[in-house]
Amino acid sequence: MLVKTHSWNVSPQEAVALQRRLAAQVITEDRLDQIHSVAGVDVGFEEQGKITRAAVVVLRLADLSLVEQAVARQPTRFPYIPGLLSFRECPAVLAALEKLTVMPDLLLCDGQGVAHPRRFGIACHLGVLTDLPSIGVAKTRLVGQHGPVPDERGGWIPLVDKGETVGAVLRTRTGVNPIFISVGHRISLVTALHYVMVCTTRYRLPETTRAADKLASGSGK
DNA sequence: GCGACAG
DNA sequence: ATCTTGTCGC
Question: Mind telling me which residues the site (Interaction with target DNA) is annotated on (predicted)?
């Protein structure tokens, strides 16, 4: 699939300025068609972090069966800085997405969407550059506060930062730590929660994320 | 100045 | 994220 891009050869200061500019393009309401396929994206590292390995898996929403998958490896060229994760991981992820022969209808990204200091986490960045609806699925919090999360599967509570609801803390499995969901692009929070639940069957994380994680860290191709 | 801090 | 063995619990 074709994706837009911009220079990644930027300093942390320039990256912040770029986020502020691109954040204006994020759409936080539903602008999506019928969803038939969902892509999971994740990144792993090799050789002590020297190499970034991005993986993308496309699953059929109806039964979560595999449609296509792709991997891209590149030298790592940006450090991990909280708030600037996308500048470290996006280049490899975009390379993996370009290898796909089918365009997924929705993107589930490993990390935050608008639950970010400048409301532009990696899910927003990937959503804007691909122009695909996207959702941020994170295992831990970056910003925001929240009250107690309901114990039952499917229960959730708003994640609030500076007086603004930026996401939700969702219990995907009873008795298991919740995950942090936020809008990436072209989707509302409630719709995002719906699709995350549809993709989550018997584990804490969505099958899309789990499949992408295996591809990103495993030794396969 | 101190503490927090996606992956 | 990654480096790493066994261990606790359902």
Answer: 80
